[in-house]
Batch of 3 targets.
Target 1
Amino acid sequence: MRLDKFIMASATTLALTASTALAADETIKVGVLHSLSGTMAISETTLKDTMLLLIEQQNAKGGVLGKQLEAVVVDPASDWPLFAEKARELLTVHEVDVIFGNWTSVSRKSVLPVIEELNGLLFYPVQYEGEESSKNVFYTGAAPNQQAIPATDYYLEELGVEKFALLGTDYVYPRTTNKILEQYLKDKGISADDIFVNYTPFGHSDWSKIVADVTALGADGKKVGVISTINGDANIGFYKELAAAGVSADDIPVVAFSVGEEELSGLDTANLVGHLAAWNYFQSADAEANTAFIDAWKAKMGSERVTNDPMEAHYIGFNMWVNAVEAAGTTDVDAVRTAMYGQEFPNLTGGTAVMLPNHHLAKPVLIGEIQEDGQFDIISQTEEVAGDAWTDFLPESAVLVSDWKDLGCGMYNTTTKTCVQIKSNY
Amino acid sequence: MARIIRALVLVISALTMSSGAAAAQTSAINEILAENAKIIAKGSRKTIQPAIDALRDSGLPEAQVVLEKWRAKEIWMRKEDQRFFLTKTEDKKTYQLFEIASGVPAGEAAKKALKQIKPNSGVRALISAALVRFQLMDPNPAKRRASLTAIQRDPSAEQLFALRGAIADEPDADIKAEKQRIEHLLTLAFDPDPVARVNAIRSFEGALDVDVRAALNPLLATTTIAVSEQVPDVNIARRLTVATAPGDDGGLTGPARDLDFDAAYALLVTDGAPAAISTEVQKQALAEHVVDGKVGGIALSDLNSTDSRDRAYAALALAGKVAPAPSLTDRVAAIKAHTFYAAYTEPDSDVTDAAREVLADIETQVEIYGILDLSLDALSLASIYFLAAIGLAITFGVMRVINMAHGEFIMMGAYTGFVVQQIIPDYTISILVALPLAFAVTFGAGVALERLVIRYLYHRPLETLLATFGISIALQQIAKNIFGTQARPLTSPEWLDGAWEINPVVAISWIRVAIFVLGLAFLIFLLFVLNRTRLGLEVRAVTQNPRMAASMGIDPDRIRMLTFGLGSGIAGIAGVAIGLFAKVTSGLGQDYIVQSFMTVVVGGVGNLWGVLAGASLIGSLQKVIEAFNPSNTLAAQTYMIVFIIIFIQFRPKGIFALKGRAAGD
């Protein structure tokens, strides 16, 4: 009896495996590796929905290489080691051809070894701290020189800021970014005394003293500006305290790198009008492609939903991947990777994104002022800036370049003319 | 070609004008705009000034309106001919155009053909500064105040004279005082008469405002100068001590060196001394000229001191093989031959003396008030911890139930506040409704938790801990499912906006004052309930000896249920208060549960005064450590926890330890 059951079960399993194998021939599988539960769920669920929308739209256009696309959604549950496990599952069990996923840098770092070992392909859509270039990852979010540096330039040149407060949450992205910015400001002639740095824990809520410290910085007659890498819901207490202290954006502006449309929806923005954010995309960008994308998004998800920068990154990344597959005529990772270099696709802000040999995009940098309705008024938009994997402002990174196309190396030392490493073990 | 087009455009625009007089003016302002179209469209602070100046100095009556509209982002440019218009739109696709000065309709254009001129905040500040002369005597007091703010953001000598002309006729006493204050601020920086400047500086004795310090500090900016013979006619701040050898820092006993050796020599180089080369460069140059084991006639084995390397290098330089560079001895001699001073950039010593004295006095006061401000912050943080922990003081302190879901009751209260605000849009009423409602909701939740779970586990504390921990996780997930993980807004009513400014240094936001008052009210309320009412008596009786209490006719079950409900209900009210100043998320309770337990344990279990003491200790300790280490708030929290661990080692029962039989041991 038991044996019977076992045989039957195995037979069904076999049959099932066979049928999925058959199905695999007819569809191209796209892995979606975003947390659907846990602390990162709200941000990443939006990206999962974005991917489903993009795949749906592509299928309506006839799919890729004459085949339909099939989304394989897994949930790594905001658990960093689980990201690696789920990536392995996607590549070995589901045998997906490409993965779109991750949000936090720590989750990306945990996926890297798996992706490189199994030669997978990952599109990473979030602005990050740079200092990395993996053969198997395309970074469609902003590198520091596409967000932090232009925003700092804007402070120096347009707002005449002479004294900087770098406020951040205590983890890898703010610390690396602030390290780069500190060096950059010193190179620009800002003395170390005029740079105030503060790190707070995740979810910090007692901001009164820090805000008082920042306002007191103006005592020597220099214009003060705040660069905020504060992440997550700690921003809410920070902005509330700022408003309570009566800090006007015209006196002490705050530019944030991690506050977008989605985050502002949790705030009463009336007291924040005029504070700034720097991204490569804002929902308020005036372009036809953007209007179409927003309309499609709202039709699918509801009219109160907003779009944001990482969504645009997925939009560009996905469409470039589709074009690269069409160009290569196959979904083979190495062929697609080669076809990716130089891919161009219109971005949602009216320009064109180009995929560079260092696996980063050339994208414009936008600076927006917060408006009463929780949207951003774009007041500065640059030409496309080429993403730089290794920053030029830290001496140990300045000598490094990444060029997978001609040099075949993501960490090439230009002074010794050698490839430091092919695989990532940062 | 371009000229013809421009002429054509001018003709066309002239044709579209309605009346003759208006046309003349309109075209005048349009011409100014057209001439500056490029920089206006570019909108960069660095290049915009000519356009603003041209408008301001045009003398045209509509210049003020145009500047105001420009600042308000209401001006649009038609791309094809770079002409500027005001616009109106119904559908955000086609825009009706209006002449900038007259408001006469000027046709329509598609959005694509237009560009909105959006001055950034830097440009807006410049426009505001230009508007000052129009607005200083504007009939609207708000505009007059705005013009004063604009002057402060962009002070200049020119503004000073404009401002002086506008003080005497100012009707509003407050604005007049403000005008006089700003006039003094500008006088001390820009007036040509030193006596007037000194008087202006003296008028700020004891003023704590940041802008006063911001005006005084630049007067005391210094530069370092090196003097070889006679002291030149400059305003010397003080003589500097200089390192006379590399690495000389004055030793343990000597005075600290203001200037290190390299910096001092670098200063001499800017005054014409020959540039020094670094040791590495020197060594490399020597290595390149090794001949027969010798460099410049000195054997390699002897090149082990700075002196010998300098000699070898000098020999090479003499032979013309390397560029000459001063030896260490030369440099030491050069530095010793000079005296170094810090000199004020401000030449008038009366002004700097006055500024120094006034500023020193102000800074002492700022420091004293800074401590006061810190104490106020500490008091506020203590009251927040107190409010979060006081419910726990009842459930844990009095009933000895370790309720890990206490934080989630706080969260529930905060979400209740959010939901009420969705239904009642008036913030004042909604808060007044939310406070009792949050109490009711969490009271109910507390009673339910007690009835369904805790009453079965009264004698098994470990299992209570696990069960309530599980419930805490479940409640968080439920909140995520209902409200999403994005933080929700809980907005305070307008009368709680802003801060109570005792003086420019000591300030605390009203919302924190309100939380303080709320905490105090609950302390009094609970003291009253526990010590002066029948319920309080029964609660104390049941906690001390439930069997004895039962035999006296008290229903211990009912009392426990009510007590637990009361503790939970207060957590709900704390949630509304915390949501108002921080955020409402499903993880809100997690941020306070550890602090709350810490407060209760440090203060002493089973005593409301203990909670007060514990909250005050933890709150002030945290602020003091933060003040010592302003760059890392996380570190401050870590040090505090270390301190508390040590504290508990010495006073395991907290500050207010229960004594006698009530202590239960």
Target 2
Amino acid sequence: MTQITDTPGTANGPNQNKNIARYLLRHLREYGLLFALIAIMVFFQIVTDGTLLKPVNITNLFLQNSYIIIMALGMLIVIVGGHIDLSVGSVMGFVGALAAVLIVQLGWPVPVAIAACLFTGALIGAAQGYWVAYWNIPSFIVTLAGMLVFRGASLLLLEGQSVGPFPPSFQLLSTGFVADLVPPLGAGVAALTGANRVNGLAMAVGLIAVAVIVWTGLRARTQNRAYGIEDEPTAFFVARNVIVAGAILFLIYKLSTFRGLPNVLITMGILTVVYAFITERTTLGRRVYALGGNRKAAKLSGIPTERLTFLTFVNMGFLAALAGLIFAARLNTATPKAGFALELDVIAAVFIGGASMSGGVGKIVGAVVGAFIMGVMNNGMSIMGIGIDYQQMIKGLVLLAAVIFDVYNKQKQG
Amino acid sequence: MTPLLEMRGITKTFPGVRALDDVSFSVATGEIHALVGENGAGKSTLMKVLSGVYPHGEYDGDIVYDGQVMKFGGIADSERRGIIIIHQELALVPLLSIAENLYLGNERATAGVISWRETFQRAEALLRKVGLREAPQTLVDRIGVGKQQLVEIAKALAKDVRLLILDEPTAALSESDSQALLDLILELKTQGVTSIIISHKLNEVRRVADTVTVLRDGATVATRNARTEPVSEDQIVRDMVGRSMEHRYPARARKVGARLFEVSDWSVTHPEHAERRVVRNVSFHVGVGEVVGIAGLMGAGRTELAMSLFGQSYGRNAKGRVQLNGRDIDVSTVRRAIDAGLAYVTEDRKALGLVLDETILKNITLANLEAVSNAGILKAQKEIQVAEKYRQAMNIRTPSVFQRVVNLSGGNQQKVVLSKWLFANPKVLILDEPTRGIDVGAKFEIYTIINDLARDGKGVLMISSEMPELLGMCDRIYVMNQGAFVGELTAQEASQERIMSLIVTE
């Protein structure tokens, strides 16, 4: 066919502008997500008169959303693999209940109980994954059944009562903070900004995170250059990094003027990095994307599709169990209602983050940002005193808008 | 004769690409008009303009039909005028009956209530007209592709077709089904139906077409009247590719070495009906550097044979012996078959061969990720090097290996599939219809790749429904019919007639 476009990257002036426009159009989704989160935060910061970004509320925001984010990591992988898991809310509640029974009622040592709970989660995932992977039973059905079964099972375990409180060592899972290991840095920053006290470790972690993000960005850029991959225009690269770095440092600084780094944030951060690495840089991750993209082709390429599907559910069960423990630790009690309807928030986060219902598409970072978008909206609307009725409606519409935007964008690109 | 259809100065652009450039195309009443050209030449786009898929206003130029300028706003408009297009991918609902499919969207109903008596009666008459002996109540997924194609034509007749457009109607059909279909088109012509047929099979074009129009790079290159002067295939090919193709099959120094791959007494049963043996006691061998063909009709069990050998991807109760270099190998799973040195290039590259939404790079390394990773961690640079190497070696036409496969043409997609399997470094390659739906130029390239493989000492087993292709490429040809091998011919002995007679006499 006759090409009537210009060769990219060779000309200056108007062509360069055109290239930038084209690049932006093609990557609208990724930028859009990030800027949507920032815009939402700015919006609520203004309408809540600055309450949203108060140090205590930021800490709260992380604590409140940690279990959704942790489950979103597993859900993204399940969805990329071409399935869905509706049972995570119930499994999370069940594992919280199990923890309460083991620790509070039976007096098991906390570490042993935690290990047992995580194992149980993985086992539940395995039980569901078995039917999906090896019997080809639709995951929607299997996990819908699981959702009912484990909701009932938590009621049974707790005999319909709330069970608590947990010993302090268990509560640390959620409400604990990491001790300040580098107070001099904190003192230095405090002297600069005039704050009362600043947690040095938090600042150190923030600075390191920013350094790593910028460094990997630059490295990827030189590599792309070397292989002639279409490059992000320099202005975009700089702007994006400045905004991301600024946002991280801002949040970290706020956290450090409160009580420093919550344990949960560390858990969440490490898990996010680990899962991003697995999905993007390992053969395991690549195979899951291929499986979701075209199961038959993946199978005929020698990929053990059944076993992989099975493993995505085992992993999901494990993460749901972890989320259940964190949730129980945060409430300091296990209730039969724990995790109710939470699977919908998790699934919504993954789709807002750009995953495709048909599998094969989606990114860990997208799912995490998607979860934060939901989280900030929950938090912001609660501060504003908007009723749960409107909150639900608004969240539903945001989910729909995000997916419509996706589809529209895809059609436009042809 | 007055033209039934005249498309004048049609130009259609997509962002960045001019797909049609001032194309003029005229079809006389009552003729069969063949539209040929390489993939991407603009044939399908032109037909989409005609049928209203691209509505009036999205293209420049005029469509004059029946002496009037048409402004179709959608397919429904063109269908109302009797212009009906049958796409390559059939548009039938598999779990509805033939009769329901025939009248889908056009139901025999009063006030929304379907009259089944009328539906079935009319359906029966239509099926008789197209020569399909099936009950109208039969579900569409119970009949083969060849018969489904006839159902599509019957469906067109149900809509009072005047101009029938067939996009590669015989691409998925066996030789005999193709013949029957072409006969039907000729028969419809006598009943006053004008047809446009898009095809890559030039012998078929020559057989039925009254006029041949060749498109190249979005423009009309030539329109030849096949009734006044015979049109040769070479002539058409030259028009299509813009150069002369002296040899359709590249030459190869034929040197067959020792026995490389040997299958003895291989049997497989149907996955659901354990008593039905789909492959029956098949034995064959492939030598080092040998290209061996398997000829046969659609449904002879060739693909089933190949897939069952490749990790039992088809069927159950596989029995028999598989040897490589004289040693038994385990082919019970795809992984084991690959590790043993087999590769299978599927017949249906979109559904079974490629992850369409992924990049060229990710598709190429998929079957051998171990070679581009260390302890399960992918080596990005190594992957790019590998993909680049194959992009150049295979001449995959793409700006970069980060292009998604879905954007490539059929020929380039097939090269990606071949790259994937070559990177897995097999000793024996089973190629199932390696050139289906690929244009002449790309076919030649695929043939060259096959020859290179043989020269490098690989064994190639090639399944094809195009007999000239087997005759042009293979050292030896097995003939398969109803699940069993019914003959073996050397390159010297083989001819289309001998292959057909082996099939028919069985």
Target 3
Amino acid sequence: MELALASFIGVLVAAGVYLLLRARSFDIILGLTLLSYAVNLLIFSMGRLVVGKPPILRDGLAPTLANHADPLPQALVLTAIVIAFAMTAVLVVVAVRSRSDSRSDHVDGVEPRDGGQA
Amino acid sequence: MSPTAHLVIAPILLPLLAAIVMLVIGSRRIAVQRSIGLVSCLGMIALAAMLAWHADDGSTTVYLTGNWAAHLGISLAVDRLTAIMLLATSLLALPCLLFATGGWDRRASHFHVLFQLQLMGLNGAFLTADLFNLFVFFEVLLISSYGLLLSGGRGPRLRSGLQYVAFNIAASTLFLVAVGLIYGVTGALNMAAVAHRVAQVPAADAGPLRAAAGLLLVVFCSKAALLPLYFWLPDTYARSPAAVAALFAVMTKLGVYAVLRVYTLVFGAEAGALADVAWPWLLPLGAATLVLATLGALAAPSLRTLSAYLVLGSAATLFIALGLASAEAVGAGLYYLVHSTLVGGALFLLADLVHRQRDKAGDSLRKLDHMAPKALLGTMFAVAAVSVAGLPPLSGFIGKFALLAAVPAPQATWLWPVILVTGLLVLVALASAGSQLFWRERSGQAPPGQVPPLRAAEVGATVLLLAMGVALSLFAGPALRYAQDAGAQLMAPAAYIEQVRGAVPRPGVAL
């Protein structure tokens, strides 16, 4: 499970970085979204991967991490998701306005001379 | 709990409440919004001064929000460094807001609300003792800075805004990766608790922590615009509205603050396998940034771009002070930080005044044009320039002198020339800008009655900011003493760690 999750995070980061470097506003939005997914999974996995253990204390179970999932990374991920969501919304608004003002969705506001899309 | 203990959280709550009240009032009644904003800024100065006075006995005041112990909940802490940053921010904020009330604030809806939220984010970032909470306050101040930067903007300003937003979101992602790694290895997020555990981490587990330390350095240095990460700054600052750009002068200092806090406390001298990871990088990069910023200032096409490069240069000087990692150098750096924040803000305000008082050329340094009240603006520019360039008798000289005196002999052979020659080149850049703006005339008569009169609030705000810089030179003795004490306190983080970790929740609080 660790290998699968680590590889998945790696693929998400690779795709996110690739999209980020394409320097088109829509690609950047998608790239940053993928990166934020990867980061959320990373933080989540930092509480260690456990199966079938709730993050809430229950009667009869000793309140240690051997019996429970770590609740703190889950709370951190929740915060990070909300913030990333808001930031994406801001970025979309700015990108749309910039696109309509400069008539190009390149981040420099002008089309590169060689056509841009290598 | 005595009421004064709650003072610690007041610099966060005051602007938050002010922003909420302003939202309810609505931006139509702008006179009420302006008065609330000014009252809030004055209140913040008073709060920061009280906290600075409290912190001067060398103690770290810890505030446990929600009355949870430090390693469980989020805690705030005030020491001398935090007090200095709070005071510098609030002293800068008041003239910026005053400048905006001259009329610019009508053009951007919700300017006053966003301004207060920005201050809330800054104050929170300075106060918090928790890494994840630091991230949250970074986001609070960033999202309001997007609003301040972009509201009412079009064309080129939106384009540089898009780059600024995308760049900062990417940096925030790296911040989260670093926080995740630190939590994964140490199981803590409170900086004092992390510092305590980092010192005990076995060498085998040090790899992820080293990666986290490097990532955090990248994030903070991108905020502070260190060498490979500064390309966003001159364009963004030069295109921002004056009051906003002046307030942003403190944003680069936030990056400096974060580096100083995290790398003295968590990865400081006592961090075992990870001791002092940052300092070897900061010294050469700071020096290189200083050289490039000075060249940028020499080549700047307009007064606002020149001011942006000078802000960049001041952040680079601070990184040199940090890279020396001695109590004297950091103390001198902190004095220089307050000085450069105030005078950097003043330059942006002044550039905007010049921009509007000139006939057609704006604040361009390439074209000659007529300008109306030359004596007033010229005097203000001269005071700001003397201060920035580090000439006696103003605060820039005192800060740089203290910094040069703190450079140890081995590094002095190459650092003194870098600092002194860049200082000279900055002086050349400012002198040529000043003579272009104030002494040389376009041939022909000035068009009569075309230049708008200066607004009292805007001139007053700029004069106030410059006067603060002069006051900093007049009271250089106590200010420098306070900064040196703060430097010494930072270089001995054991007391901070002990006081935060040892803070016990108050008994007898009804839950």
